[in-house]
Amino acid sequence: MNTDIYLLSLSLLLYIMVVIVIVSLFRGKKNKEDSAKPVDTGTRPVDNKPSGSPFNKLLDSSSQISGQIQDAANGLEKLRFDLQDFSATNWNQMKAVESKYYRLADNIFLLLDYLEDFTKQETKSEETEWIYQKTLRIIHDENIAEIKLAVGDKFDPNRHNNVKSRESDMPAGSVVEILRKGYYTKGQSGKEIILRHADVVVSQGMNK
Q1: What kind of architecture, by CATH, is found in domain 144-203?
Q2: Virtual CA dihedral for 101, 104, 108, 111, nearest 10 degrees?
Q3: Domains of the chain: which residue ranges?
Q4: Burial of 203: CB neighbours in 10 Å, binned 0-12, 13-18, 19+
């Protein structure tokens, strides 16, 4: 669709350029013929070209072409606005799909949180473990991975969410506790895209 509109706009531009050249040639020919006319000395009337002469027909065609140029220019302007509207519509649709994707991913992550907590209990069942492993396989197949993080790692605002800070014997800025796992994927360029930041508690160090 985008390519079709682009090709149409190019065709219109080429059409306008060709028509402008034709009109310029017509007008140049008329100026040459006007300059070649004999000077009227008053001894005899100047012969006017009959209304049906080829030259007048040429002028009529020139006027029609000028009108076509204006129509084409108006059409091109409308096409420009239509293209802008098309781009805005595409952008809005893309953002809507992206928003739904993030909501769906977040719900899957919440399910994983619940399943992981449940599998740690003594009353866990084989069915729960199977669902948990199956869900992990699903996100893995979609190129979604867990953000690797361990207690003592340095806090990274690009990948972690600082829920709260507290005093500890760890260096300031270190991760003291992991409250919730984070997940990411990678775009076509290989750039990391964070789908959910890891919730952590960050060390303030020891106050002296």
Answers
A1: Roll (2.30)
A2: 160
A3: 2-33+52-99, 144-203
A4: buried
Residue 77 has pLDDT above 80, yes or no: no
Instruction: Tell the burial category of 175 from Cβ atoms under 10 Å away from its Cβ (0-12, 13-18, 19+).
Output: buried
Dist. CA 182–CA 200, nearest whole Å: 10
- The pLDDT confidence band at residue 152, using thresholds 50, 70 and 90, is very high
Query: Which residues face 92 on adjacent strands?
Result: none
For residue range 96-114, list pLDDT tens digits in order: 777 888 888 888 899 889 8
Q: Strands of the chain (E only): list them.
A: 145-146, 160-166, 175-180, 183-186, 192-196, 198-203
For residue 66, the Cα-to-chain-centroid distance in whole angstroms is 37
Return d(Cα 200, Cα 208) in angstroms, integer.
24
Task: Please tell me the predicted confidence (pLDDT) of residue 1.
Answer: 44
d(CA 103, CA 101): 5
- The pTM of this model reads 0.56
How far, in Å, are 5, 70, 131, 156, 197 from residue 141 at the CA level? 37, 56, 15, 26, 20
